[in-house]
Amino acid sequence: MESQNTITQPTKGFIVFKSNLTTTSTTPVAKNPIVEDFKKDLRDAEFFKLDNKTVDELKDFLPQNLRGDEIASAFHLYSRGVKALDLAKNAKASSFLKEGERETLYNTAYLIEVLENANIPEIPRPEALYEANFKPELAIYESPFAIAPQPNQVSFEKRSSFLEPILQEAQGRAADFARDKLKNIATKAIKSGGEKLLSQGSKVVAETALKIGTKAATTVAGKAAGTAIGAALGTAIPIPILGQALGAAVGFLSEKLLKPILKGIKKLLSVVTGEKDTRKQLAYLGLTGMVIGLGIGSLPLIAVSGAVGLGSLALITSGAVVATGIFASVSAAVAAFLSISFMAILGPILIGIFVVPITVALILFIINSGAFVTPYGGYDIAPPGALENLYIEVIKEPNPEGPFANNQTQTITYTITIRARQGTLTNISFTYECEVFADYDRDCPTTPDLRNIRAGPSSQTPQSYPTFQAATPIIISTDDPYVITYEVVYRGGSFNDSLVIDTFIVNADAPNAPGQEASAAASIIFGTPPTGCFEVSDNAALWPGTYRTNMERAVNTLVSQHSAFAAKVCSGGGRVNLCYDPIAVDAWGWHTHDARCDIRFDNTSNTGVSGGLSNPNNALFILTHESSHHLQFVMGSLQVAYEDLIGRRAELPFCTDGRGDNMPTEAFAEMNALYVQVPSYWCGGTFQSRYPIHYDFAERCVFSASPDCSP
Q: Residue of 179, 213, 275, 671 with fewest CB within 10 Å of its CB?
């Protein structure tokens, strides 16, 4: 018998706020420096709070029952484009919230409204954040476990009578600096925006009847266990939450809203399964529907049935089916499934029949529902040594730009501008390179088709030179760029269906920085060069010249030198659009798997490190990594085979990505990228010598026309 002193612990839960973009940029959008600084400070500090004295001084402008955490929460949600009134209305309409939890969100909404009305230069205008986040729509849902902060979402942990944000107080000098800066901004913003709301009225107060001022809290609650949870789950993948969230939702609906209908279904399933437990009945029903979906090839049926089945299994196993890896989840799911008495006899047979199909379906569902990025060492960790040159800038422009039809003679004039960024350049040398990408061998034009080389400081009349070496100046000063022009004649019929990439490299010594190198490239397209299903597209923003050239080079290299891999990526049919989208991308690359922009790119990571597109090797590396995420969707069996690979965990993490085996989908993509091209921040040696098991698997399975994917 259970002791009368036994205390039933409440089930922990979390509330997730996700801002979903509703538009994409069709024209180049300049980054707003105030927005970028604001977001960077929040990334560096993550969590901050005002001291008790400051809160007491500002109490006339604050909610009466303020705890203190709401200030940091408001800053984070505001930075993601969330509007105050939207949050208040969503909180009011969310029936799963308790009164105290809803009050926490009302407080947060009011503080966002304060930020919207603050008139200080450090706070971005709400419309700027709304546009920068692609006009997001706010969604609030329950989750069985927390999600670490992501670019478009924030989680809160349910406490006894309030919500606590899953935000961790970052450490280090940068964090301390950002935290102090944010405290100062918050103090000024609350006074500025609060005074305005007191004079003109608050829409949030009108919507929620929230009480402001006179009795604002004089003590600010400190961080509790939520911080530790945020740290522990810092690398969790949010997508598997959907299965459990849906499972929990199914449980709620079955008990509260659909009870009369489900009562009859429950009786029927009880006869079929021999089970009285509703969760097991739903698991049986969901996984049966999933198998039917596999049989008829219906991905929606697989996804919905799998979510219901595995969500119910998550409830059976008290959360064993969680984001600990695809196979761990499936193992727990199968174990719970086989606990159903009706299935116990058929257990050994069902393991052989269901494990692999369910795993493939899960991977497809997860990849279809989510997006992947290419950061070094995890989210928000910048790759070392991948900076653009700080001393030399080289710009190259062709005129006309093309593209051109086949069988036509074209004369292209190239203009190269070389600037000294931080002091006069000396000991200068030039290198000219040209390469033709086609299904046949072809050399680039040379003299006499490479002609009319003219060069000189921009302030002077250019002179004619026979070669680039002869045009090399003694110095290039910071206030007088050096300009070179030349012509190239492409004879009709000689370059049909080709991509010609023309590169100019500058080596020079800068003050206190000898041996500097910078380059620029331009591409010319004739007809239809070999690009497979890839298309460098302007669907998000216009590609800058050198970035476009390096991405086109990467596409042609991948298609021509790794044709089996490219064929697998393209096996899903349709175009794989490659978009330049610096506003949306945080870490060089992002696979979103939508028709308009399948993969999005930026040259600069969210921590300010450049080189993702300006470096040709990095462009090829990123393209391969993100294409691997597309491959996971169209050929999920390769991911399954990779996760079965014997010995792979012993080689992880890669030196280019510190996440280890907690994200096997990222490890798979990183493996393929390293097989094709190591990035500029490579750790030395060869991929084969450092990671022989991964190299062997990539070569015989992923990159082979006759794949052997055995473990």
A: 213
How many C-beta atoms lie closer than 10 Å to residue 71's C-beta?
29
Cα–Cα dist 513/501, whole Å: 29
Alpha-carbon separation of residue 588 from 6, 370, 380, 579, 623 (angstroms): 53, 17, 11, 12, 10
- pLDDT-derived band at 612, boundaries 50, 70, 90: confident
SS3 691: coil
Contacts 24+ apart (CB under 8 A), 377-380: 377/656, 377/657, 377/658, 377/659, 378/234, 378/235, 378/657, 378/658, 378/659, 379/148, 379/150, 379/586, 379/587, 380/43, 380/586, 380/587, 380/606, 380/607
Q: In the structure encoding, which two tokens stand for residue 225, read together?
A: 């266990």
The residue type found at 544 is: P
Cα-Cα-Cα-Cα dihedral sign, residues 363, 367, 369, 373:
positive
**What's the burial of 171, exposed, middle or buried (CB within 10 Å: 0-12/13-18/19+)?**
exposed
Measured from the Cβ of residue 356, the count of other Cβ atoms closer than 10 Å reads 15
- What is d(CA 696, CA 651) in angstroms, rounded to the nearest whole number? 13
Beta carbons within 8 Å of 219's beta carbon, 6+ residues apart: 52
Q: Which residues touch 643 (CB under 8 Å, ≥6 apart)?
A: 325, 326, 327, 664
Ranges of H-type helices in 562-655 = 563-569, 616-634, 636-643, 648-651
The whole-angstrom separation of Cα 639 and Cα 648 is: 13
289's enclosing H/E stretch is helix 278-296
Cα 629-631-634 angle, rounded to 5 deg: 120
- Mean pLDDT confidence for 81-94: 91
Q: What tens digit of pLDDT does each residue of 500-541 get?
A: 988 899 999 999 999 999 988 888 889 988 888 999 999 999
CA-based nearest residue to 340, from 277, 292, 394: 277
Task: State whether residue 435 is helix, strand or coil.
Answer: strand
Provide the strand spans (E) within 113-176. 137-143, 153-158, 163-165
3 state SS of 118: coil
Q: How many residues does the chain have?
A: 711
What is the residue whose two structure tokens read 């119910």?
A: 312
| C-alpha angle 600-605-607 in degrees, rounded to nearest 5 | 150
Asked if 162 and 100 touch (Cβ cutoff 8 Å), the reply is yes
| Residue 676 contacts residue 620 (beta carbons within 8 Å) | yes
Decide if 365 contacts 302 (C-beta within 8 A).
yes
Ranges of beta strands (E only) in 336-449 are 372-373, 392-399, 410-420, 426-437
| Cα gap 605→185, rounded to integer Å | 25
Question: Assign residue 150 a region: left if phi > 0, alpha if psi is -120 to 50, beta otherwise?
Answer: beta
Report the interhelical angle of 616-634 vs 347-369 (nearest 10°).
130
- Tell me if residue 108 falls in helix, strand or coil: helix
* CA 494 from centre of chain: 42
What is the DSSP code string of 654-689?
BTTBTTGGG-HHHHHHHHHHHHH---TT--SS-HHH
* Residue of 504, 512, 437, 520 whose CA lies nearest to 472: 504
Strands 498-510 and 426-437: antiparallel
The answer to whether 303 and 368 have CB atoms below 8 angstroms apart is: yes
Decide: residue 228, CB within 10 A, 0-12 exposed, 13-18 middle, 19+ buried: exposed
Q: What was the pLDDT predicted at 611?
A: 79
Predicted TM-score (pTM) of this structure:
0.47
pLDDT tens per residue, range 214-270: 543 333 333 333 332 232 223 233 333 333 344 444 444 433 444 445 445 545 555
* DSSP secondary structure letters along 494-550: TSTTEEEEEEEEEEEEETTEEEEEEEEEEEEEES--S-TTEEEE-SSBPPPHHHHHH
pLDDT recorded at residue 652: 92
